[in-house]
Amino acid sequence: MPFNPEYRNESEVESKLIVQYLLPQLGYSPDSWYQEVAFGSIRLDFLAFAAQAVPFVLDANSPLSVVMEAKHPDQNLNNHVRRLKRYLTNLNVQYGLLTNGKEIRIFERIKDDIRLVFKCSGKEVNARIEDIKALIGRDNLKAIGTQRPLEVQQPQPNVVNTQKSSNLSSETKRQHSVKTIAVYHNKGGVGKTTIVVNLAAALRKKGKKVLVIDLDSQANTTFATGLIKFDDEEFDNIKDSNVLHVLQSEDSSPIQEVARESQFNNPEIDIIPSHITLMRYEQELNQLADIKIMLSEKLQAVEKEYDVVIFDTPPALGLFSEIALTTADYLIIPSDLKPFANQGLVNVKDFIKRIDRFRKIISKPQIKILGVLPCKISTNSKFVQSTLPKRIEIVSKRYGFNVMGTVIYEREDLAKSTEKTLFIGDLELPDPRSVLDFKPDSTSAHEFELLAIEVSQKTGME
Ligand SMILES: Nc1ncnc2c1ncn2[C@@H]1O[C@H](COP(=O)(O)OP(=O)(O)OP(=O)(O)O)[C@@H](O)[C@H]1O
Ligand SMILES: [Mg+2]
To answer: Would you say the CB of residue 217 lies under 6 angstroms from ligand 1?
Structure first.
C-alpha cells in the first residue's frame, strides 16, 4: 500500500494515519471504533474495540480496547504520556497508542501504571505494521479475550463520531425522531429509578434533550431529580400539577405546562413529576377510553423539544406500567439477576405480550426490547468472574431475553448521590444529584456513560 507519512496538522494525523491507515490495517472495521469519545472530563480521540466481553465494565480488565491519541506533528509526545496514563488507568483500557505522525508509541497498562511496549518512527510504520498488529491488532486482542467470561452481546459505543456522522446523508440528519424508552421490571427495588435518572443525566451530558416521566406513584424519580424541596406537605407544589393531570384530561395539562426543569443534573432535564395521589386514581383513569394512548398523543405536541423521553414505572403489572410500555418504543429491564427478579421475568414476558397485542390493535409496532440490564451487581471479584457470567447466561437461555452489555454495579457513590442534602438556615432539604455530577470521575459515573453509549447506539440516536 502506498504510504506517505507527511502530516501538516493534528487533523491529518487523525484522518490519514489513524482512520485511513492504522485502524483498517489493524482489523478495526468502522463499526468497532469511535472518534471523540467522552467519559466525564476525559475526551478520547479514538477508542477501538476488539470485542466486548461481558461484564462490560471499566473497572475490570475486560474492555478489549485501544485508545489512540493523535497530536500535532510539532508536539513532543513526552508531554502527553501522563495524560494517556490517566486515560488508561481511569478507564481501565489495556493499550494506548500515542502519535504525532512522526513517531508512534504504544503503551500497555499494568495496574495503575503504563509502560512503553513499542516505538517506531512514522516512516517505519509500514514496515513495522506486523509488530503493531501483534500488540493491538483486533484479532490479537480478541484472542486474549477468549480467556475471559463468555461473550454475550456487543454494546457498541458510539458517542460523538464526527467522522462517521459526516457520512450520513443530510436527509437522515434532518429527520428528528424522539426515542421513547420505558424502564420496567415488576420486581421492586432492582434499580429502575436509579437507571432512569442517571441514564437521563448521561444522555443529557451527551447533548440530548431529555424528558423524564415519572409514572410511579411512589414518586421516587420525582424525589431523585430534586423536585421535592419541601419538608412539610403544606408546601407541596407537586400535588396540583403532575402526571395524573396529564393523563386525566385530553384538553388540559399539556406536557409543556406540567414539565418542570430539574437542576439535579447539569445541564438541566425536564421532568413530569408523579405524586402519591396517583395511586387513588388508577381505577378512575382505567375507565377512560383512550387512557393508554393519551400520553402518546400529548407527547406528539412536544416531539421537536426532546430527543429522548424516559419513563419510570412502578414495580407492578397495572395501568401505569401499561401506559409506559404502550407509549414507549424501547424497553430496558433492570434486574439484579437474582432468583426472584429472574422469576419475575416470566411476568414481564407475558406483560409485554399483552402490551404488544394492544399495540397491534392501535397499529403500533411491537416494543423493542433493549435487554435486561444487570443492576446493583456485587463488585466482589469472585462473583464478577464466576457467578455473574452464569447469571447472565440464565437470563438469555432460560428466559429468552437479551442481556445488555453494560453492567451497573452496586456502588456507594451512586446510592449517596440521591441522599445528598442541603441546609438552608437550620432546614435540611434534599438536594439529590445525578452520579455524573455528584462524582464525575467515579466508576459509577463512567458506567452510566457507557450505558448512554449503548442505548444511543441501539436506538439509533446519533
Ligand atoms: N447500582 C446501585 N448501587 C448502589 N445502590 C443502588 C444501586 N441501584 C439502586 N440502588 C439503591 O437501591 C434502592 C432501590 O433502587 P431504585 O429505587 O432505583 O429501585 P426501583 O427498582 O426503582 O425500586 P421500586 O421498584 O421501588 O421503584 C435505592 O435506595 C437505590 O439508591
Ligand atoms: Mg422506582
So the answer is: no
Query: Can you read off the three cell numbers belonging to residue 297?
Result: 398523543
How far is Cα 289 from Cα 2, in angstroms, rounded to an integer?
Answer: 69
The C-alpha cell that represents 255 in the structure block: 406536557
pTM: 0.71
Strands 64-70 and 42-51: antiparallel
Instruction: From 186, 193, 407, 408, give the residue whose CB has the most ligand 1 atoms within 8 Å, as the site to mutate.
Output: 193
CATH 3.90.1570 domain range(s) in the chain: 10-164
Fold of 10-164: tt1808, chain A (3.90.1570)
What pLDDT sits at residue 175? 52
232: how many CB neighbours lie within 10 A of its CB?
A: 7
Give the range with max mean pLDDT: 48-62, 198-212, 281-295: 198-212
**Using alpha carbons only, what angle is made at residue 22 by residues 20 and 26, rounded to the nearest 5 degrees?**
120
**pLDDT tens by residue, 129-173:** 999 999 999 988 877 654 433 333 333 333 333 333 333 333 333
What is residue 78's DSSP assignment? Answer: G
Find out whether the beta carbon of 268 lies less than 6 Å from any atom of ligand 1. no
Indicate the burial class of 404 (C-beta count within 10 angstroms; 0-12, 13-18, 19 or more). buried
Q: How far, CA to CA in Å, does 192 sit from each of 81, 96, 231, 426?
A: 40, 35, 25, 33
Query: Going by CA atoms, what residue is nearest to atom 31 of ligand 1?
Result: 415
Confidence of residue 55 (pLDDT cuts 50, 70, 90): very low
Q: What topology does CATH give the domain 176-459?
A: Rossmann fold (3.40.50)
SS3 content of the chain, % helix, strand, coil (to 5): 40, 20, 40
Q: Who wins on pLDDT, 6 or 145?
A: 6
Give the integer Cα–Cα distance in Å for 56 and 253.
42
Highest averaged pLDDT of the listed ranges 36-45, 146-155, 230-239, 309-318: 309-318
Q: Are 94 and 107 in contact (CB under 8 A)?
A: no
- 187 within ligand 1 shell (Cβ under 6 A): no
> Binning pLDDT at 50, 70 and 90, where does residue 451 land?
very high
Per-residue confidence (pLDDT) for residue 160, from 0 to 100: 34
Every domain range in the chain assigned CATH 3.40.50.300:
176-459
